[in-house]
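MODEL INPUT / OUTPUT PAIR
PAIR INDEX: 1
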Amino acid sequence: MKRILKIGGSLILLLVIILAVGFIVINNSDIPTYEVEKIEVKVTPTAESIERGHKLVSMLCASCHKDPATGKLTGTRMPDAPPEFGVVYSPNITQDKKYGIGEWTDGEIYTLLRTGVKKNGQYAPPYMVKLPHMADEDLHAIIGFLRSGHKLVAADPTPDKPSEPSFLTKLLCKIEWKPFPFPEKEIQLPDSSETLELGKYLAHNLDCFVCHSADFKTNNYLEPELSKGYFAGGNKPYNREGRVVLSSNLTPHPESGIGKWTKEQFISAVKFGIMENEAPLQYPMLPYSALEEYEVNAIYEYLKTIPPIDNPVKRSLYDS
């Protein structure tokens, strides 16, 4: 019996040592890097595509990359990133050749947006938006806008502040979070007359499901519908003061979701942040005023088709 206890104690001690060494190694490591696949992409922007790119960047990039001090996409602290991911700063994505992406090729920007792999091969964790399902036309529009003369992206020599990823982030980047594959063929924009397809496209590519599903850690970015608690809310993004603002249930459940919402109520909330008989919506849920009514309506119609989930989420209210 003593021999068994001695062996058991030795195994436990060995396990503790292995775990401790593993923790030290991972904690002292950096985010993984990968071989960069060279992709030839040449964007030829038009006035129309630049306008479209501005619209997409304002909804997908500006909330994280725009620094109020510079008024440009020079990067800033991301207050809504869960603290378990560490301290996160967005990088400078202006046209500055030293501190921004002025020396990046169209293909390198395309690769980052599609796969999450940067120019230097380092992987960008999930707090960086990735667009594996976005139409090529829209990706080209984003790249075209980043190359445009708009003041948001004008060259600015503001150095990046390095993020401080947590042990959890480093661990998940090694075992779970991996670069996405390139699409096997060109992705087409849905026809605006195909309401449900357009709604699904926008709900996925504007990252709506990312915040409105159960948890950032359990989101399925390649197959969003398989995300835990798909659109049922309860996720825990943070506001600018570092307080949790629970995401709302957007499934068509009649009591805890939007099953009883009218189209007009939904459009008012999404485009203008206005809730009937309630306080306005607050950061990190910002009004998507750039969306056209038909686009918000398409999202509404798509959400009405997904399985309803009874998940009561108490709305977080704070004084402005």
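PAIR INDEX: 2
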Amino acid sequence: MKRLAIVILNWNGEAMLRQYLPSVLQYSRDEATIYVADNGSTDNSLDLLRHHFPDCHIIELGQNWGFAEGYNRALAQIDAEYYLLLNSDIEATHHWLTPLLEFMDTHPNVAACQPKLLSMADHDRFEYAGACGGFLDRYGYPFCRGRLFETVENDNGQYDEASPTLWATGAALLVRARIYKEVGGLDARFFAHNEEIDLCWRMRIKGYEVWCLPDSHVYHLGGGTLPKGNPMKTFLNFRNNLTMLYKCLPQRDLRRVMLVRWLLDYVAAWQMLLLQHNLGDFLAVYRARRAFRRWRKDFDKDRQEIQQWRKAGQTDERSPLFLLCQYYAKGRKTFLTLTL
């Protein structure tokens, strides 16, 4: 069994691999075996890997399975103690793996962790997709140390203390392989977006911990697959977030939270149309709500199993904050200003 397998999922990412894979190899090859799992690319990704990166192991998946199922299929072929799911647009740094591995080795109840995620465009700024560790508010809105909605903070060392979180970013997610399999891996039905939050939430419900370890940091380009403002991204985010809530919310909160989200989602949709003049995202929210209603029953067994993992008196994994109120009504735009 290998100790650590770094797995980069690729789909038509030749340019990303050419630019960022060298840093991963330079700073990781002594501690990890590096794989690129290819989701049926039609560009020259595979030729590039074979001729220029012979140290990488290639897993050919044959078609585009999406983020979740692509990783599930790739990881099923790898025997390792730890998996590190790494985006192809990550630039690694010197000794970035050491703090992550040392922490996991000495904290057996920790299922997953992430490094500090900084912006490729501005190395002094957090990156949107995970910043310094993620949380959910009471209604399922994700936020991070270093990022609330569209406000991304500069990194001034304010979050340099290691901290437990609810979720770790899928851009650079180190996870204990045994626990990944124990909770069922990524939910392939999500295809992409919210799948790492769903995975981490299930691990937390099981009683495991998730951490952010800022002693390790990497740089992330972000937005490489579906850029911001893409209606398909909006659709997947809304549909998958609702599905995750349905699976993981405690029974006492399910009806209330889903009712509030029904209202808030339609308010968001009309804001997109009337204030942002964005018809594509407006329609995407309506399609997402409809898609969730149609497939919700497909997740009844998942919900029943997940709720059985909960122990009596278990602390709620979500933050009690109402993030929309904090951000828009009270004007609190940074993590450290949030209050109950």
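PAIR 2 NOTE: The chain has a mean pLDDT of 96.
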